[in-house]
């Protein structure tokens, strides 16, 4: 088997109902239920104007830096509702995808969104699309089409490990990765946390929140509270 030039056509996929339910939750609430250890680096930013959250199973693509042959292969093999997740090996010099390929993914493949840990181009039009598009940056410089590359293998995107079939959730704050095997256990915790968070926001707004724990924590951690001005 030619490692570096592999295309896996099958994935273990999450429960569609679980995926659908995550679409009702903010990425931040879900992340807080995962030890705050699942969010992609903020260099990956929302580039379009979707009117809904991005959620779907990961269709992973590992490209050679600055090369998009494997992404063209993804156009053939990804499925409706997928989130295409692209690892560009840390490169930030050549765009991997633009409006032409994006049009095919949106209109023909009907993907749920795309996450590119690298540059894209044609942002003047893409920035107004409803398709959730996350990327690292933009540049007019185009890619090579030589390979190698791999599809549906583990990748690193935004400093987070992503396996094929993991649940990818994105909103205006950014993108998180929910491991497929843990998704059904994380969902009820995140739903409960979301309800508690709404109540917490109301309490903070009304000034009825109990912040006595802050005083105890500051004392336990050895903070000095000085009733005086700072003097250099």
From TrEMBL:
What is the name attached to this protein's record?
A: Putative 4-hydroxy-4-methyl-2-oxoglutarate aldolase
Outline what the protein does. Answer: Catalyzes the aldol cleavage of 4-hydroxy-4-methyl-2-oxoglutarate (HMG) into 2 molecules of pyruvate. Also contains a secondary oxaloacetate (OAA) decarboxylase activity due to the common pyruvate enolate transition state formed following C-C bond cleavage in the retro-aldol and decarboxylation reactions.
Q: What is its EC number?
A: 4.1.1.112, 4.1.3.17
Catalytic activity line of the entry? oxaloacetate + H(+) = pyruvate + CO2; 4-hydroxy-4-methyl-2-oxoglutarate = 2 pyruvate
Q: Which residues form a coiled coil?
A: none
The keyword Methyltransferase is annotated on this UniProt entry: yes
Q: Which residues bind substrate?
A: 98-101, 121
Q: Which family does it belong to?
A: Belongs to the class II aldolase/RraA-like family.
**Annotated organism of origin:** Lactobacillus pasteurii DSM 23907 = CRBIP 24.76
């Amino acid at each position: 088997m030619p490692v570096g030039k592999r295309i896996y056509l099958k994935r273990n996929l999450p429960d569609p109902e679980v995926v659908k339910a995550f679409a009702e939750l903010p990425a931040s609430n879900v992340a807080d239920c995962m030890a705050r250890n699942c969010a992609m680096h903020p260099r990956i930013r929302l580039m379009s104007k979707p009117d809904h959250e991005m959620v779907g199973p990961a269709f992973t693509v590992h490209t050679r830096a600055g090369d998009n042959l494997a992404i063209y292969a993804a156009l053939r093999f990804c499925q409706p509702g997928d989130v295409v997740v692209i690892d560009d090996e840390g490169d930030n010099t050549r765009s991997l995808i633009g409006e032409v390929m994006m049009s095919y993914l949106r209109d023909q493949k009907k993907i749920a969104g795309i996450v590119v840990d690298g540059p894209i181009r044609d942002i003047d039009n893409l920035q107004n699309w409803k398709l959730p598009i996350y990327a690292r940056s933009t540049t007019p410089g185009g890619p090579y089409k030589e390979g190698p590359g791999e599809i549906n293998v583990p990748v690193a995107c935004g400093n987070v490990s992503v396996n094929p079939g993991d649940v990818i959730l994105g909103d205006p704050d950014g993108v998180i990765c929910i491991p497929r095997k843990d998704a059904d256990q994380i969902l009820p915790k995140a739903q409960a946390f979301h309800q508690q968070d709404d109540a917490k926001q109301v309490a903070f707004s009304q000034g009825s929140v109990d912040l006595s724990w802050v005083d105890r924590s500051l004392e336990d951690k050895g903070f000095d509270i000085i009733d005086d001005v700072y003097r250099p």
